[in-house]
Each structure stands twice: as C-alpha cells, then as structure tokens.
Write a structure and sequence with these properties.
4 copies of one chain form a homotetramer. Chain A is built from 8 helices and 23 strands. With about 350 residues, the first copy, chain A, is of the alpha+beta class. Chain A has one domain: Jelly Rolls (Sandwich). Chain A has a 6-stranded antiparallel beta sheet with strand order 2-21-18-23-16-15, with helices on both faces. A 6-stranded antiparallel beta sheet of chain A has the order 3-4-11-6-9-14. The longest helix of chain A is centred in the N-terminal third of the chain and has 14 residues. Chains in contact: A-B, A-D, B-C, C-D. The interface between B and C is large, with 96 and 97 residues. Strand 1 of chain A pairs antiparallel with strand 3 of chain D, so a sheet runs across the interface.
C-alpha cells in the first residue's frame, strides 16, 4: 500500500479555501480514521489501586463541602484518551463517589444512565421512582436514563460506591442533560422489586398482561449474585469463566441500554482467557486478588481495585490465591455494540 | 334481529346439489358459528375429585399392564364438549398418569407439547435431551414439542402426575404425531438447568452471546415456586391474586408455546376475583381447600382436585381455611390466544 | 409394537365408573390421537369448480332474501372432515359470498379475522374503520379481528368474493363472537392506505415514531400484485415458485394473525413442487388453468376454482398452458403453526 | 444553584496526586458534562454550498491522483465541533466524493456503515456482496458494516456522491477498521433486489421461511422515492411534512443500524415545522430551493447544498418557490438514539 498524500502536499491557497468552506480533505486522515484490520486504540490497559484512591476521596470530603461538589466523585481517567478525559474506557465513565453520614443528593434525573456498585460502608440508600433501595457492599443499583432518583446516607461511616455511566456516548452525541425535581414521595414498600422477582423462570403473572417494564428490577443484591455464582460454578468446566449477566427479568435483555454488567468468579488458582471481543470493559475487584494480562501487559489487583480493558484486547485473568475464589464486577459496552451492529467476538 | 332462514326452507333439490358440490349454506348455521356478544360455550365448569380418580387410576394399573397401555393415563373429559372429548377445556388436554415402580416410558418426541405436574410419589424422573430431571410433588417438568424425552421410576410407590398438553389444538389442525427414538445418553449433570438459572435478573453470560434458547429451563421445582409465592405475597394487596407465571428466563415469555402455566396462592380466608378473560383454564389444587364460583356455579375443592373453567367466565376463588394458605396450579390457553391476536381481558 | 388395549377389554363396571367421573382411558385412543411419524389426516384433497358453485350461489340469491341470509355464503366443506364441517382445510374457512346491487352488510366486528378476495363483479366496497376500500377482481381486503367493517355494492351486476376466515380455530377455542355497531362515518380519503404505502423499503416517516400499526394496509390491489409477480419472475429460476406473501409493511410479518396469504405465478408450461410442509392450504385460481397433484391424486383446475391441500402433503402444481402464465391465490395456516411452534418444512 | 468548586480551588499537591493516580475531580466539570435542562451543544447550524464545494472537489481530482487519495473525499466539518472535526453533526460523517471516469475503488469492508447518495454524473456503480448496483442522481446505495463492496465508474463525466457514515460513533468507541479483499465475483443479476422488492406489503414468500435479512434491499432509486413522495403528498395535510423513511422491507426497521435516512418533499410555497427532537441531522437538497430556520438562524439553500442541524434544535423548513416542490434527503441519528434509549420528541 503506497503512502497517501499528506495535508502539507496540498497548495496553501487550496487548504485555505477548504478551511473557509468548512471542509477537510479525507485522504491525509483516512488511515487514522479507518486503519487496516484492527482499530487504532488510544485507550490503554490501566489499573487504579483503591489504596491510592480511597485516601484521595476522603480528602476530597474534607476539602470540598457537598454544596460545592454536588457529587463528590473522582473520575477514572484513562491516560491514553487524552488529558482530562472523563473516560476509563472509550464508552465507559467510572467514578468513585463518597457520601458522608447525613449527606443527601436531591431528586433529579438525567439522559445518561447510571449504575451504582457499592464498595464500602453501610447506611447508604437510593430512591428510584419512589422505591427506597438499601445499598450494601457489592449491591448493584440502577438509576436509568430518565428515571427520578435521589441518594442519602443514614449510617455512621463514609459510604463509597462506584458509579458507571454511559456519559461518554451521550455526551459525544450532545444529548446529555439533567433535570432537578421535587423530593420523591417514598412508597411504603422499600426494596419491593426484590420480593417480586425472586427466582429465574418465575414472573408475577401480571407482567404477562402488560408490555414488559423497562426497569422492573432496580437492585441486584451482591449476596444473591454471589450465591448464584457458586451454583453456576457447579456446572461450569474449569478454565471457562463462571460469569453471570445482570438482566431485565421480564425480557432477559441486558438491564441497561448502553452498558452491560456482569459478575465473574475465578475459582481458587484458576486462569480464564475470554475470547477477544470488539468491546472495551472495566473490571472492579469485589473480593480476592490476582492478575490481569492485557495485550501482554500484566496488572496485579486486589480488593476494590479497578482495571481498564481496551477494545479488541487479548485478556487473561488469573486468581493467584490457591484457596479462595475471587469475584470481579465487569462493565462493558457490549449492549451498545450489539444494538448498533458492530459487536464482534474475535479470537 | 329477524330469524335467519333454516336449512329446511331450502328446496330439496337445491340442498342435494349443494351437498354434491361439497358446500354448505352458511346462513342456517351463522348464528351458531358467530353468536352475538359472547361465544357460544359448550365447555362446562367441572370439578374432578382426586378421591374418585386415584382409585380408578390404580385399578388401571392392575387391569392393564404397561405394555398394553404404553401410557397409563385417565383423560379428564369435559362433558359439555361431547362424549369421548379428550379435552378438559376447549384447548387443554389434562390426563392423570400412573407410573409404577420400575416402569419406563421409552424415548420419544411429538409435535404436541406436554408438561408434567407431579401429584404424588417419589422416585419418578424424566430425561429431556439428555438432562435427567427428578420429579417431586408440585414440580413442573417441560417436555416441549420436538424435544426427545423418556420417563422412568426408581422409587417404591406409585407415582402419579398430571399431564397438560396442547393436543386439542394440534390435533384439530391435523398436525399431531409422534416419533420413537433410541434411548438417550444421559449427561452426568442431572438437573443442571436448576443450577444455571437461579435468581431472577441473573443469566449465564453466554446466554447473551447467542440466540435465546427456546427451553433453557426444564424443571420448575415446587419448593422454589412456593417460596417465591410467599415473597410475592408480601407486596400484593389483600384480594389481589398472588400469582406467578412460569416463564423462559432468557426471554421472560411463557415457558411453552400454546398453553400457559402459573401458580396461585390464596392467603388464609382470602377470596380473589380475577378479571373475566377470553381464555379457558384448568385449576389443580396443590395444597389446601376452598371453593370456586364459576358463572354462578359453586364447586368445592380439596387437595389434588382439578377444575375446568370455560372461556369468558366469571370466576371467584375462595380459600375457606382461615389459618392456612392454599395453592393452585393453573393451566390456561392465554399464550395461544395472545399470539393469535384474540386474547381479551373483559370487564 | 404390540397392539394397545381396547376399550372393550375393560370391565363394564370400570368403564361405567370412569364415565361417571368424566374421565376416559387414554390408551385405546392413544394411537389415533398421536400416530407414528405423520399426522392422521382426515382432510382430503378436493377441488371445487366455479362452474358448479356460481349457479348455486346465484340461486341462493333468488331463494333467500338478504334479510333471511344476513350473509349469502356457500361454505366449502371438506368431505373428509365430516358432514357439515365448515372447513375447507383443518384451520381454514372458505366461503363464496354473493352480494347483489344495492345490498348492504351493516357495520359489525368479530373475534375471527376475515379476508375477502374478489372473484367477479364491479362496484363492491368494504369500509374498515372509516376507510372505504374499492373491490376489484383479485383484490385482497382485510377485515381483521376486532376491527369495525361494513360492506356495500354500488354497481349493477352480482359481486362474488371469496371469504377466508380463521373461524375453525376461534370456534374450537370457544372464542368466536360478533358485535354489531352504528354505521361508520366514512373518511374523505378513500383507499388512503394505498397512497401511504407504495414502494417496498419506504414507509411514512411517522411510522417510525410510533409502535407499528397492526393493520396499516387494508387493501392489496391485484393489479399491483400481478405486476410484482412479473418483476419477481425475472430473478426466480425456472421450476422455483414465483410467490409473493401479503405482509404488514410496517413489520414485514404476515398481514393477518392466524392465516397466511400469498400469490403464486406459474410461468407458461412450468411445474413447481414446493417442499412438503406441516401446514394445510387452499388454492384459488385467479387466472389460467392447470393441474395439482396432491399425495398422488390429480385435480384439474381452471379460472375461479378452489382446491384444498391437506397438512404434510406432497404437492406438484403444473401450468398446462404453454403460452400464458397462471396465477393462484393461496391461503395457509403457516402463521398459526409458526407462532405456536410446530411449523415444519419436511424433506 | 450556588457555583460548584473549581479545579483551582484545590491544593496543588492534591491536584498532583490525583493526576498521578489517573483520576479527575468531577465537580469542576460536572455542569459541563451534565448541564441543566438541555444539552450543551457545540455543533452549530451550518450550510455548505455546492457551488463552493464542487470546484474544490474537482481541483482535488487534479491535485491528487487516486493512488494518493484512495478516496477523493472532502469531509464536511462542523466548525463548532473543533478544528479538524470529521463530523457534520455530532454522530454524522458527511463527505463529498469524486470519482473520475475509469477510476475504481477496490473491494473492501469496514466496521462503520456507509451510504452513498448520488449528487451528479452517470456511469458510477457499486458492487455489494456480488450485486452490481447502478448509481443515478438521488439514488441511495447501502454499504453496511461488514459487507464487501467496491466502486467503479464506466461513464464519461465526473461522478460526485455524498457519503454518510456513522464513523464518529464507531471511532469514538475505538472500533473502526477496514479490511481489503479480493475483487468480487459479480453475479449476473445486476440490481436484483430491485425486482424482488417492489411494492409495500408484498415480500418474496421465502422471506417468511427464514430469519429476516439484515440488508435485503441495497439500492433505493430516487425515481421511485420521488413518485412515492407524490403519492404520500395526496394524503398529507398542508403544513405536515411529506416524509418517507428508508427501511428494511423485511422488518420495517430503519435500513441501517445507527443513522436514519429519509426523503422530504416541501410542496410549492409550503413551510413545515417538525417537532423538536433530541437527534442531530444533516439535510441535503436534491431539487429546489428554500430556507431553513434553525434555532433562530436562517440559512438559504439551493440544489445540492447541505445543512447541519444540531440536537434539540427548533427547525422550520420553507420552500420559497411558489410553483415547484423541493426535495430534501435527510440523515439523522434517530436509530442510534432510539436503540440506546434516550431518543426524545420534545415540545
């Protein structure tokens, strides 16, 4: 393939005329926009250590009162994506949010969708459309696009959770905004969706009488996920990932529209090598310790650390503990890629 | 509306000519085929008492060796649908099947779909596509259209289960047939789908990577259903049915293509009046006792009894025990009616 | 396979007890209900000649005033399905309807779905939900389940059309009924859906902004179908059926919920042998002449004749005219069988 | 709402520590990422005049031989989106491509999807998966993600077409790449999909026997679209847009996965004001002249001009010619927004 022409090879007057007309010649940038055989990836494999982030987050609590912060969040910024990129991976916003006892985030809704995955602390809660959802370590709470939600903290110690948002996509498309609302009336059935949707294969009968709800289940308690991982482990051959996807029980589809969420268990001493995928992902360690090898780069991790995985990457995940399982929470952009028609499983 | 012409009003030669041409005049039968405002129902509310059927079924075991019966089944025959109608309700075949210790039903598959709901006995099992499924009281086992299945009995007492089939529809459409096959190779993961699909909202990750399975879950254990009914009860107002539908966990759709299955709990002393529906149904009592009032007719029931409910019927179900809940298993033809576009919830 | 026990082998007292309990032993009827390898078909290949039916229909017009007939229809009755069976094939009702100048069928709707396919005459029309649809030879008019419709005739000669209904299925399920209504207000956009939906691949933009309409297109003019068959013919190898299905343009799904409709063209001298299918069908000749060989039985046909094809049948269709194409209109129960999960293409 | 803390208010050592840990504080950027009530839009209403672009494109043909350009394309760059942005609107890449007689673009496929809309010239063609598609003014040709395609030119004058790609989204997600292939074997049925899919509501029967094709129709000839617009015009009230969407005839869904395409007709002298939408769009003038008022800014246009419309914009389109209709081709990102769950029709 011979080299393409560069921008410098064009006469200055021509370049000026193009610029005045708000057009660009494609060919000098063609190969960057459309490389051969594999995307030009800028995102890098990165590990964020909780032992570094936790003190920084607590210090933010001291430095900045909640009125000046609104959300006290440190955003994981993938250094390959440029300075100040609010992206851990191309399509994934990850923040660590601190909420102190008695603090409160007033009722609002926004066009991006968010989930909250609890890292530590007791007494936090989120109210979504009137349903009050308790938050315990490892719980996943949905606050989807357009749904009213507010947060609070009735406990005694700092609560820290991980926010995962589809903000990069919504923002690039210039569709991100937020609306504030009156405080919600809280129904007297806290956490009711938990009792409605218990067992795979069983739905409230009236769910069949109406169109499927977009978000019938708003909290996925870690205790239940952990148990289900152990069940699944019993019928999964060694070396194959024990992995559960968080889905809408009324449709079996991913629980959120753009980002996908799943929980992974690596059995003691086990190494798994998922197929190479066109998606990018973020892994968060719920329990245990191990190593990720991503495109040849090795990153060690332990509890509450977070790791970025670029698109089209070769990945191996190893549990280095020979006696205990390790559990990971995974965020990926597979729902987006599948819906938009370019999801691929390579290998 | 004046009366329509009758067949007798037509000249005999004309009637003969029509008959010779294989045609019928519509108008003498029009009102029967298309009555005003409500279907002309022939099916009647009926109760079948287990205390009558059980001895008859055991006697069948004595009278007819399994080689002469192939399936030792008594078919519930709704007297309104004509003599020898193998239909408990217009679209629903219900049989009570006896299987004695050591008996075996060889591998086969058929175009109708069947489910088995266990009434009594231990040690029965069904093998579906290589997965060996234990059968305990109240368990629901799917043997869908086209899937290989065989039954056996490794226990010591008679096993009796209820068969529900969509045979009336398949048979009317002249599409019912059966194929016999070699004995299945049984996989060494008995009841594996139970461990794969545990919790509402969690699916094995690979379920998202492939087209949804049509029948990923083949057994719905009663123990789990009963627990889930009690959970649901906590968020269901008194007087509203506590009812769970059996669904495909990968899609949230009814678990079988033509007939629908659900479990109902009536709390102590509770009466529920579901809306009038265009569907017909069969109710089977798993535990407890009570009364059904169907289009003004009252039918009492106790454990293991079975009741037919015609289409478009007014129904009230009452638990007459002030201290214990009662549990019903319901079969209806809602999936068929919804897919075919004439399902209605009336009043 | 040894013979199963018969009903006569059971002791009389036992048979009496079963009967009193409203149950039947399955085994004497098992093989009839569930035969090996292929359905037990009662429907037979039949041809109805228009030269016989037309005079009979016109005589019905003389014998029975419209007030005594409400619909002046001769129903094609497949002799294999029993005397007085209002079924041309197991799931298909076919009637030939006569409407005389000035006659009028008042506004009504019913749970079965109907289509009208015009055989002869000018000036007939149907109004569906306020849209007045002209009816010319070969046009297909939909009057789906639950939609208001009324018919009329503003011409000077008898109009005869073919009615195809899913009545057998609805009736067997005891869900068939009819409601009469006030005369419809006719919108001043006659046949408007024709102008909205012209070209494959183009939809009114607002169709994308709302849920797909169930019946956006109510008339399929024969002139357009015939032209499209000729186009399709250009890219269809000889010996392969040139066949167009009538679909909902907003979804691409069959235009009606239970029965399927399509138009077939056999090129001059051509013979086609469609695959054996689990469906039954009715063929109506729009133009031309030829022969059908169905399970070895040969039936000749010419214009406006109608032929029944049983389920699972071997079919060959031959155009015996070496110079002109022939056109057939086909009704089948494929949508029903697909939705209910037992549709099969065999061999 | 009090102001949030700024980055400068944080102690330098803290900022340094954050930076070293690859994290950013959210609060200084929160309002920019998530503004109140309406997105922060950078894209601007822009008009590109064909009278400026055409000479520039032809000069590119002189300056740069095809071997140095591979694709001779000028990219419309919305000045609000930053220098060198290859985006006409946030999610939409628009290029004007010149192909000279005898030139050839070899066989390739890529993860972005593209369409080609012909502006001028005769003799161009595209081969997609072996089907050779002629290209005439106004024709829309699909070259979807992953499908092999090659272009050529058998005429005598320059051919210019408009490329619309979903490249911005694919590129942001780091999933854009291209694969080159051997020249395609061209089937001897040029433009065959045109003859298979003619009329709305009619599909080849075999389309019902298989899963819907993702891209059954590859060319949408302008002549057909124009005729269909005139038909639609007859049932569209004045002041309401006469607008046809390009869809997949087998599903009724948008013809491409991320971007949506439609054709608009403004009747002589007519002004239409579509509802405000969350989407961005590009309008290209096929015939006629008029004005667009976008968020209060007025842009005049005439044949072959192109206009960018930001998200959430107020738009009025006016045909200034009192005697002739004008026709616009519209590209928007509605399919993407709908699939991802944040599409909105506002006010």
């Amino acid at each position: 393939m011979s080299g393409l022409g560069t921008i410098d090879e064009l006469p200055p007057d021509y370049r000026q005329a193009l610029s005045a007309s708000n057009v660009l010649p494609l060919w000098p940038s063609l190969r960057a926009a459309l490389p051969y055989d594999k995307p030009a990836r800028r995102a890098r494999p990165v590990a964020w250590r909780y032992r570094d982030l936790r003190p920084a987050l607590l210090r933010a609590g001291e430095l900045t009162p909640i009125e000046k912060a609104e959300r006290r969040v440190l955003v994981l910024s993938n250094p390959g994506l440029g300075p100040d990129a609010m992206r851990a991976a191309p399509a994934i916003f990850i923040g660590l949010q601190l909420i102190l006892p008695g603090e409160f985030a007033p009722n609002h809704r926004h066009s991006p969708s968010a989930v909250r995955f609890v890292i530590e602390g007791k007494g936090g809660y989120t109210v979504v459309q009137g349903e009050k959802l308790p938050m315990e370590k490892g719980d996943l709470i949905l606050t989807p696009s357009g749904l009213w939600h507010q947060h609070g903290h009735e406990g005694k110690e700092p609560v820290i959770w991980l926010d995962a948002l589809d903000l990069p996509t919504i923002n690039t498309l210039e569709a991100s905004y937020c609306v504030e609302g009156e405080p919600q009336a809280i129904r007297n059935e806290p956490d009711a969706s938990q009792t409605r949707f218990r067992r795979a294969g069983l739905l409230p009968y009236q769910a069949l009488e109406t169109a499927p709800a977009r978000y019938p289940l708003l909290r996925y308690p870690w205790r239940e996920v952990r148990e289900a991982l152990h069940s699944l482990s019993g019928v999964t051959p060694t070396g194959k990932a024990v992995q559960l996807a968080y889905v809408n029980p009324e449709t079996g589809a991913e629980c959120m529209p753009i980002l996908g969420f799943s929980a992974l268990m690596l059995r003691p001493g086990e190494t798994v090598a998922p197929p190479r995928r066109s998606t990018s992902a973020v892994l968060h360690v719920v329990e245990g310790e191990g190593e990720a090898e991503i495109d040849g780069e090795t990153l060690a991790w332990s509890e509450s650390d977070t790791i970025a995985v670029p698109t089209h990457a070769d990945v191996r995940l190893a549990n280095r503990n020979p006696r205990k399982p390790t559990y990971l929470f995974q965020v990926d952009d597979a729902p987006l890629q599948k819906k938009l028609g370019f999801y691929e499983v390579l290998n």
